Amino acid sequence: MADRLYRDFPDADEGWLSRARASIVRATALAEAAEELGLGDEVRLGKGEEATGGREKPSILSDALEAVIGAVYLDGGRDAAADTIELLLGSRLNGASGEPGHLDDKSRLQEYATGVLRQAVHYEIADSGPEHDKTFNATARVGGKVWGEGVGRSKKQAEQIAARTAYAALVAEHGEPEPPTPPERRSTESPDDADSTLDAASPDDAESTGDAERPDESPNDTDPDRETENA
To answer: What is the CATH number for 75?
Structure first.
């Protein structure tokens, strides 16, 4: 995926490419792709994970998708793995090209809070339930005020949900941030098309144009001032 981004956006800086790659291959994005495949139904789980909804856990689903891609690579090689990644995640890459460096919810909130509001983000976490089946509650504070809350099966998931809620609330209160200008995708114009465009202006046309603009320098034309001096 990093190779594809580098080839498609040759003028993008390192920061943009890193954020774009992170948005595509982060655990939540991989888990979403795994859900679309119905991969959770095929995973072999122990009784404990089965009882606690392991088939829907983002961490397990993302790991399962990575395992599938790894198996394809071992069985079919680099090209087969690249084709599989393109099939599973290609649409997310196209989305990343529309909005530079699609960020995860915590990163997006962080950039908004520090860049627009000039304030820091802090998270508070509380958990409940038995050790084998915990639920985590996250609170996102910006400038000391609670702007979002989230509940999840892991601390990370709860924080992401809280950040998403906080971001939406802040945007509603303070307005959308100014969108950065995305880097241009590499042109898909073929070399033949470029050559045909150049051929459209023939050398003869260029010469005739130059002749038309060249001033008349006839040897019979003389400077009147010079004739006066000679006289």
So the answer is: 1.10.1520.10
Q: Exposure of 22 by Cβ count < 10 A (0-12 exposed, 13-18 middle, 19+ buried)?
A: middle
Looking at the 3D structure of the chain, how many domains does it have?
2
> How far is residue 111 CA from its own chain's centroid?
15
Residue 148 lies in a domain: yes
Long-range contacts of 192-195 (CB under 8 A, 24+ apart): none
**Residue the block writes with tokens 């087969």:** 80
Tell me: do 7 and 92 sit in the same domain.
Answer: yes
Bin 223: left if φ > 0, else alpha if -120 < ψ < 50, else beta: beta
Question: 117 and 50 share a domain?
Answer: no
* pTM beyond cutoff 0.85: no
Which residue from 16, 33, 3 is spatially nearest to 103, judged by alpha carbons?
A: 16
CA dihedral sign of residues 204, 206, 207, 212: positive
Compute the distance between CA of residue 173 and CA of residue 64 in angstroms, rounded to an integer. 40
The residue segments making up the domain with residue 44 are: 1-102
Mind listing the pLDDT tens digit of every residue in the chain (231 residues)? 788 888 888 887 777 787 778 777 878 788 888 988 899 999 999 988 888 888 888 889 999 999 999 999 999 999 999 999 888 887 776 655 445 445 678 888 988 998 899 999 999 999 998 887 789 999 999 999 999 999 988 888 899 899 999 999 999 999 988 765 556 666 555 445 445 444 544 445 444 444 444 444 444 444 444 444 444
Is residue 162 one of the residues assigned to a domain? yes
